[in-house]
Amino acid sequence: xxxxxxxxxxxxxxxxxxxxxxxxxxxxxxxxxxxxxxxxxxxxxxxxxxxxxxxxxxxxxxxxxxxxxxxxxxxxxxxxxxxxxxxxxxxxxxxxxxxxxxxxxxxxxxxxxxxxxxxxxxxxxxxxxxxxxxxxxxxxxxxxxxxxxxxxxxxxxxxxxxxxxxxxxxxxxxxxxxxxxxxxxxxxxxxxxxxxxxxxxxxxxxxxxxxxxxxxxxxxxxxxxxxxxxxxxxxxxxxxxxxxxxxxxxxxxxxxxxxxxxxxxxxxxxxxxxxxxxxxxxxxxxxxxxxxxxxxxxxxxxxxxxxxxxxxxxxxxxxxxxxxxxxxxxxxxxxxxxxxxxxxxxxxxxxxxxxxxxxxxxxxxxxxxxxxxxxxxxxxxxxxxxxx
Length: 388
Hints:
Blueprint: H1 2-12, H2 27-48, H3 52-79, H4 85-105, H5 110-120, H6 144-166, E1 175-181, H7 185-193, H8 195-202, E2 204-210, E3 217-223, H9 225-232, H10 236-244, H11 248-255, E4 260-264, E5 267-271, E6 276-282, E7 286-291, E8 294-299, H12 304-325, E9 334-339, H13 342-359, E10 361-366, E11 372-376, E12 379-387
Parallel strand pairs: 1-2, 9-10
Antiparallel strand pairs: 1-8, 3-6, 4-5, 7-8, 9-12, 11-12
């Protein structure tokens, strides 16, 4: 799929292979090249140790990141109709990564790597991938801080998507805000640097940051009786009372993996996260989730404007589904006739340019028609599509 994606768009825009720029403008390009060099280094370590599992295992994680993060996050850059430096850099980066990747993989999947190489190589390159040098590890291309940033972003996005799924909030429906909380200033800084990406991934209008979780959730604690009973014995009742009176700071210390000391009948008893269970109660109008030092709270209050924007995204989703089912090429233009409600028409009037651009529609009319029936968030709709 990676190769098909690249070749499809490279042919559409008649892109010719170009060297990877020494300086990459986009953080997403810097990140994937950094991960590539991490892969090269890890595979070399495995090979030098004659450990096949150690040499092969990093491939799985890298391909997943390349497919499910880099390509997905960069897709619009490849779609740009007008030639731009950003589109050129996206093509150059992906081409470079794919070529280096198949050189690394050539020892493990020789025939597949050779087939891919023959489709991507230029006349000045060696005739076979097996005549190419193994990629050299470029330490100067590693950006470990950026790798950590992106990992924190991915955890945050994963939590946000899980919240939407749990509460049956489609990602296509914009939300007012995502509130991100961490007591670790380094993580908070990472998330702030990539807030535009988080906003796009979670489809929220704004992202806020805080190191104080109690602004969005209330923390309460109770003993883990099974574990704590062995430690305090007959003092369990007193320990329970002390734990239930923990301050927010003490609760946060437990969440951070630190130890809190309580004093009972002249004894100093250290308590850890194994001894104490911290529960979160989310403030009204929010839904929240936590993983490690990252907490995310989503504002679920939907205004009429947000609901209308959600309808526009539903139109785009359904028309693109029809395009795929009709096996249209990614460049094919279409005409649409839509029979629907006044509310959907109102949404279209506001987001006409967005909808037309996303589905490549050169003409959209409203009125009775025979076509595919859809339910757009409770609005019955019939869409007829024809290729131009």
